[in-house]
Amino acid sequence: MHTVAVLALDGVIPFDLSAPVDTFGWARLPDGREPYRVRVCGVGEEVAAGTFTVRAPYGLEALAEADTIILPGVADPPETLPPGVAEALRAAAANGTRIASVCVGAFLLAATGLLDGKRATTHWIAAGDLAARYPEVTVDPNVLYVDNGQFLTSAGAAAALDMCLHMIRKDFGSAVAAYAARMSVMPLEREGGQAQFIVRDLPPAPAGATLEPLLRWLEDHCDRDLTLDEMASKAGMSTRTLNRRFRDQTGTTPLQWLHRARVRRAQYLLETTDHPVERIAAQTGFGSPTAFRERFRRVVGTSPQGYRRAFRAEERAS
Q1: Would you say residue 105 has pLDDT above 90?
Q2: Which of 1, 32, 224, 242 lies at a 20 to 30 A Cα distance from 291?
Q3: For residue 245, which of 217, 205, 213 has the smallest C-alpha distance?
């Protein structure tokens, strides 16, 4: 039997804790046996979890016996882990134990140094902080989870369910993972490289920048087939000057900024309407459905139809 140790530290986020416990707990082999033994571990016997406390029947010594260790997120990730935690995790890693983090639990894993030189993800809202605090980690905010083999990281708690199902499938095959997914009332896992389903913020200009009026105009007219010459004319400057000021003030080019504005509008239409892809391509100025699909996949990480299925399914469930 495969042992999963879920390490709960003070401030643990309840859903980050329950997601892996429930998902691994629901798994069953074809003959009905449980493939996983799930243990909740802690520094002490009780762990603060917001408005209630959680019992942790096992101590840090249980990490040495685990095949997989899960690090749930905590409300305020510390820069220094509680005494003994980093050492226990590094010792487990040296023995080949698989270690995965949920949401901002990536901060805990990064604090051990085990993610140095590796790619990782976390909830998109915390990605900038993770990258700043741990510059040796390559943070990718645009995916659901990252599997480095021994070390895995996931985005929000919902993405952790995808990551857990991914691990179950690797351990015991698709049938066992599919059963765990059905019992958890969720689809079998989305691909890890799929984008976190957020509406991307457009590259901003500093407050009071000379491009602000043009950016507002571009966002309002991104459905048109705009050219660089037309944008420069609207701004009252040469195309060369426009390119230079765009890079200085937004860090990107006018056409790249325009494409992002179009993708953002397409996300909104896919979420809120039943318009066919061909109509949305026209409404967002991509010119052709093929160009729209290619650009959307490049920016978002999935197809327009895949995005719509996932987002509209989440909307119906909620």
Answers
A1: yes
A2: 242
A3: 205
